[in-house]
Amino acid sequence: MEVRLITDRRQWNTFVASVPAGHLCQTFEWAEHGEDLEARAGGLHVGVLDGDELVGAVLLLRSAIRRIPGALYYAPRGPVVREPVGPTLELLMQGAARFARQKGGFALRIEPNVLENDTAWLEHLQHLGFRPTTHTIYLRNAWVTDLTPDEDQMLAAMMMTWRQNIRAGTRKGLVVREGTTNHDFNAFYRLLSETAERDHFYLYPPQVFRDMLDHYSAERAARDATAQMRLFITEYQGMPIATSTVAAFGGWAWNLHSGSSALPEHRKLRPNYLTQWECMRWAKQLGCHSYDWRTIPEILEPGQELWGVYEFKRGFGGAVRRVMPTMDLVLNPLIYYPYTTAVQLRRARREQQQRQEKSTKEQPASTTQVSAASSVPPG
I need a surface site. Which of 74, 164, 220, 265 has the fewest CB within 10 A? Predict the structure, then answer.
């Protein structure tokens, strides 16, 4: 066996799709979209070859902070091997550490797409020097809906109100279609921007989403065995009022980015229910067995951040899927600990700013503000 950097996209994606621990975020193309051009260029595709056969893979993304030398190399939902037992995982992680060091890496951070109760994975990673960290990038909990039953059975597994909203959407004239034009993309980004402002989440520049749609087109999927991604637009009387993107790879589908209009006359149509149902139907027709709604709260109690998002996802039927904790392998402690401290301080400042912005928006308007804002629709 040998460890080396892999350049064959089709070989990489075919292997990742075939492994239970494979994930969209470990496709070859995941390193090629993002705001930071330096980070995009710094991605590493490290593989273990047994002869000509790829038997282990880990995509490492580069993350750096100004004034701190070097970079952290991060594996989103990786590494990918069939079994942690045996030489493959050890060779892969040793090779990843070596390549990262050559590029100035001071740590490896991994978030394996492996269920938390898989003690074999945990024991082997700890044996290799990895330790859990609180510096999570992707949260561990996700909601997953089973796509294997027929459509009537899937609808029957949903909460009653969800079924009613899906069926009512069609009766009320909602139309869900695939977005293919630049006009459709602009509508998608406008609705996503409205939602980001309303729900206080960070929105990437439009080029990031254009890159993803291009990298995961049907043509690229056929050529490079990578994921397929689609943009769906929900219209009412010809006007886009809701949107979502979904990607499919290795039997799984992921709900990625969703947005909707805040206008009261649009919200009362409940377009998000029919939008997601059509995303699920597309994934099912493509042969996917599971629909991953992605992030839900770490603590499943009312009042927690993302609780409302969780309730929406839960209504479609399914179960919680919880993966292993984020783990770090320190390569240079003299840089790693200042880096983690800087990240923690930056996150604390960002969270404080978000709380202040949210508090300001929730405060009652003053007398002079009321007259100026009375004609503005809520939301």
Answer: 265
